[in-house]
Design goal:
Blueprint lengths: L2 H17 L18 H5 L29 E8 L5 E12 L2 E18 L5 E20 L4 E14 L2 E16 L4 E15 L12 E8 L6 E7 L31 H10 L2 E10 L2 E8 H7 L10 E9 L2 E11 L2 E11 L8
Antiparallel strand pairs: 1-2, 1-14, 2-3, 3-4, 4-5, 5-6, 6-7, 7-8, 8-9, 9-10, 10-11, 11-12, 12-13, 13-14
């Protein structure tokens, strides 16, 4: 099977899965969509096409697992909003040449809440948390230029007295052209089923997503940029606020306000796109910046937009560790801080 046929087969699969996984504004296990890696956070919140030695990044696309990650350990911690914290830990192992496996656990802790009734009587506290056990496998073919991968997720969620169990699968594919410093990738995320709903008879959908993206490093420039197109399965991601509806009629003249079709198309298109750039200032120090248009449109305050939708961070190699920091500005109310660390256990053993 040649590369063109494999890509065609993959996208047919993506289309078929989309038919059974309709996207709506309400679904469960939303913690699965949160950016885990500090590097991903700094580059806009999504990065599926950069193929290097970073195990943390393989969380977003299982096809990013490579032989160089053998015996690598990666951990991430995110200080989110309102005392919410979440993180991830993973370990990768090379099974045989061009075949790699990783195991990881993702968790989210919502913190403690005061239990109260409708008239204000309190009855102690309760906590809520969610987690996912992830098993990933990737295999390279066609002289290692093409890699396919999958992640199986076992999901558990506890919200006070309500519990839920589900399963999901990610399918990833990446094609790498090392001589041109170019990669292109496609991913199906969170195609699955809620086996045990929170409330009997009220089964919910998972946050299904289909994505494509590419990364490119221009010649003789210490810079790599990436573009990710997410939510292929749904074109219009615009959210209409009933408290602040879009004006269609002029309040003074009662005349219809003409909508610029080019601007409307551009707005809908950009809501799918995440852009990131990474500068390699030295061999051991990287600066990162990203932009998420959808996040900016949905969370900005019109009177004062600030840096909403932008993100930034850095990566630093210290001794035998790779440390990363990412900060994403969600709104004027605050930003999230993400810390990641990874290392190769092999480096701690003396070489004979």
């Amino acid at each position: 099977m040649n590369i063109r046929k494999l890509f065609l087969l993959f996208f047919v699969t993506m289309t078929s899965v989309a038919a059974f996984s309709q996207v709506g504004t309400i679904n469960t296990y939303k913690f699965l969509t949160l950016p885990i890696s500090a590097r991903v956070t700094a580059l806009g919140g999504n990065l599926i096409s950069t193929r290097d030695h970073d195990l943390n990044v393989s969380f977003v696309n299982p096809a990013l697992l490579t032989d160089t990650m053998n015996n690598n350990v990666a951990m991430s911690y995110i200080n989110y909003f309102a005392d919410i914290n979440y993180g991830y830990a993973a370990f990768a192992k090379n099974i045989r040449k061009n075949e790699n496996f990783s195991a990881g656990i993702q968790y989210l802790n919502y913190g403690k809440f005061i239990r109260a009734d409708e008239i204000g009587n309190t009855y102690g506290t309760f906590s809520s948390n969610e987690m996912s056990l992830n098993l990933s496998y990737a295999r390279s073919v066609f002289d290692s230029n093409l890699t396919v991968g999958t992640t199986l997720k076992t999901i558990y969620s506890n919200l006070d007295a309500y519990t839920s169990v589900g399963s999901a699968v990610d399918l990833g594919l990446i094609y790498n052209r090392p001589l041109r410093d170019f990669t292109i990738a496609a991913v199906i995320k969170n195609a699955g089923y809620q086996w045990k709903p929170y409330i009997k008879g009220n089964r919910e959908k998972l946050p299904f997503d289909m994505q494509i993206g590419f990364s490119k490093k221009p010649k003789h420039v210490p810079f790599r940029y990436s573009v990710t197109y997410q939510n292929l399965e749904q074109w219009n991601l615009t959210i209409h606020d009933p408290n602040n509806p879009t004006l269609t009629v002029d309040s003074l003249t009662s005349a219809a306000i003409k909508q610029n079709k080019v601007q409307l198309f551009g707005d809908k298109l950009m809501r799918h796109i995440v852009i990131g750039g990474e500068f390699a200032l030295t061999k051991n120090f990287f600066l990162r910046v990203g932009y998420n248009y959808q996040r900016r449109k949905e969370l900005k305050i019109p009177e004062k937009t600030g840096m909403t939708g932008f993100s930034f961070g850095f990566g630093l190699r210290v001794y035998k560790f790779h440390v990363s920091y990412g900060r994403a500005v969600y709104s004027l109310a605050g930003a999230s801080n993400n810390f990641s660390i990874s290392c190769d256990i092999n480096n701690f053993y003396s070489k004979k």
